Amino acid sequence: PTTTPPALAPGAGIGAWFTEADFAAFFPNIDAQACTGKNFFTHAALVQAASAFPQFANSGDVEQDKRELAAFLGQTSHETTGGWATAPGGPQAWGYCFKEEVGCGQGQCTQYCQAGNPCAPEGFACTCVAGQTYSGRGPMQLSWNYNYGPFSRDVFGDPSVLLKDPSAVATNATLAYMAGIWFWMTPRPPKPSCHQALSGAWTPSAADAAAGRVAGFGMTTNIINGGLECGFATNGKVEDRVKFYQRYAGILGVSVDEATLYCDQMQSYR
């Protein structure tokens, strides 16, 4: 049987101001023939998924909420991009092209299994299931059994659901978006959540301050992939994330804080 997320109560949330026309402007090539996200990622699925996280881009300050959605979709567009340097419309016109890690769609990527039970400290099991793979799927490219298990626990009340059927994250669009928003909203100490870092709800500790970590878009990059992208000269991956964010914020008509876009002066958590 196909794994589907629980029925969600409709809520205003981003649906009150993020229109289908905005979605089309963000993702003009989302249905390109070469994209595995073709006819998968939709505005309706995003709005439905967002309703499962009432705090997501839903503070009531519409400018701040638009900024958060632009940041989330910017980061996840980088994770799913099909863009290249000379792509029509520019590299940032190709977000959400791929719904799962390229080259892993047939279950061939078996390396994302941490042996044993890495979730034992949290009091539940997320041991890999024989025959299943935990490669990147969905907008945030959810990967590893120690992420599939907690996400499944939080959404289904049972970590085993997605450990047994991880491919559901790439076959049900609402669940795929939920996986991305879940990662965005969930702190994993010592890291804050991306939501907290962007919304200003996070106050850096003394250790964070000493490591140069400050709230803002750059901090969300540090949370997502700081070990490979932060604490040294800005690389092309970081620049791509920033450009996606700036493009989307521009479409929504909101400013971004230029001083906190990058993470080159921040230590990663590794």
Mean pLDDT: 95
Global geometry? globular
Distance between the termini: 39 Å
Oligomer: single chain
Helix content: 25-40%
Q: Main beta sheet: strand number and arrangement?
A: none
Series of secondary-structure elements, N-terminal to C-terminal: HHHHHHHHHH
Strand fraction band?
under 5%
Secondary structure tally, helices: 10
- List how many beta strands DSSP finds: 0
Helix-and-strand structural type: mainly alpha
Characterization of the model:
The chain is mainly α. It is 39% helix and 0% strand. The protein has ten helices and no strands. It has helices at residues 20-26, 43-50, 62-80, 145-156, 160-164, 173-185, 194-199, 206-210, 217-229, 236-252. α2 crosses α6 (173-185), α3 (62-80) packs antiparallel against α10 and α9 (217-229) packs antiparallel against α10. The mean pLDDT is 95.
Secondary-structure map:
Elements: H1 20-26, H2 43-50, H3 62-80, H4 145-156, H5 160-164, H6 173-185, H7 194-199, H8 206-210, H9 217-229, H10 236-252
Helix pairs in contact: 2-6, 3-10, 9-10
